Amino acid sequence: MPPQRDPCPSSGAEIVDAALHDIPELVQVEQQCYAQPWSSARFEQEYFNPISHLLLHRSGTEIAAYLCFWHVDTEVEIHNIACAPAARRSGAAQRMLAYLRHWCGEHGVQHIFLEVRHSNGAALALYRKFGFSISGRRANYYSDGEDALLMQYELGRETAEDKR
Question: What's the pLDDT tens digit per position in 51-62?
Answer without folding.
Answer: 999 999 988 888
